[in-house]
Amino acid sequence: MSVIAINQLTKTYNGNRGIDKVSLDVEKGEIYGFIGPNGAGKSTTIKLLLNLIFPTSGEGKIFGLDIVTNSVKIKENIGYVPSDVRFYENMSAIELIKTTIAFHKKGSEQDIEKLCSVFEIEKNKKMSELSTGNKKKVAIATALVHEPELIIMDEPTNGLDPLMQKRLFDVLKDRNKNGATIFLSSHNLTEVQEHCTKAAFIKEGKIIEIQDLTKELKRSKIFTVVSDNLDLTVMKNIGVNVIESTNKKKVFTYDGKLNKMLDIISKFDIEDITIDNMSLESKFMSYYEKEV
């Protein structure tokens, strides 16, 4: 069952690209990563899902309900952490968390105490008195305290120290084991690879690949070859993706049989070669390095 279903979703701003015909499905129980550089369309997609902005065309559904016409109903079972936390500055952390419980009519004092303890939240401080990281912790607590079925997070670890990042994913994995679906954007590729089961790559407003992180990366290899005469045309003909090419150094990825690649490379004059398993970081760079 798809908890999130997006079909050809498009958003333009006065003719300028926001996102273009984005389609993806997030199944119940997945921890789904959403990856892309700044300006790629991650936050725009999330804001569309939450009906914070309206689509130009296409459609999206959450829990089988239309994201525009059924937004109020959908939000009853969603927890959301924005990338940039902005709360009422004169409210305390505990007041904001209790307001969330009152709004959703779910959660308890015990839930509040547990989250405040885990994330070391200073409950009685006003938001204006808190640092960026401490504001983010309050946002996480408000997103989790009512135990939503779907948790949407936009760059959730920004501003958190390593200990709090670990605690966040410990909590998210526990919620996931109890049935919650998690959709998160992140620049931290290590955390996506470690914790997510699937990821979508977005570039210039378009989805360029959706990958099962539990399987596909294990098959891919990244080659670093130093050679005066390695012919990249031959490499491209068998399906490699070139990441870097200087006078002698060639870096590329390959998903096929290792013996086949080694047989081809052996026909050239090779000074040095390194073969590594594909990481999410190298996958990311293969898509985006040319535009950086």
List its traits:
alpha/beta, Rossmann fold, 34% helix, 4-stranded antiparallel β-sheet, 2 domains, 292 residues, 11 helices, Alpha-Beta Plaits, 6-stranded mixed β-sheet
Structural account:
- It is a single chain.
- With 292 residues, this protein is α/β, with parallel strands linked by helices.
- It folds into 2 domains: 2-212, Rossmann fold; 221-289, Alpha-Beta Plaits.
- The chain is 34% helix and 31% strand.
- The chain has 11 helices and 14 strands.
- The strands form 3 sheets. It has a 6-stranded mixed beta sheet, with helices on both faces.
- Strand 4 (57-62) and strand 5 (65-66) form a beta hairpin.
Please give the CATH class of the largest domain.
Alpha Beta
On the 0-100 scale, what is the average pLDDT? 89
**Largest beta-sheet characterization:** 6 strands, mixed
CATH superfamily membership of the largest domain: P-loop containing nucleotide triphosphate hydrolases
Helix content: 25-40%
Our measurement of the CA-to-CA distance between the termini, rounded to an integer number of angstroms, reads: 37 Å
The CATH topology name of the largest domain reads Rossmann fold
Q: Give the second-level CATH assignment, the architecture of the largest domain.
A: 3-Layer(aba) Sandwich
Strand content: 25-35%
State the domain count: 2
Structural class: alpha/beta
Poorly predicted tracts of residues: none
Radius of gyration: 22 Å
Order of neighbouring strands in the sheet with most strands: 6-7-8-3-9-10
Number of DSSP helices? 11
Number of DSSP strand runs: 14
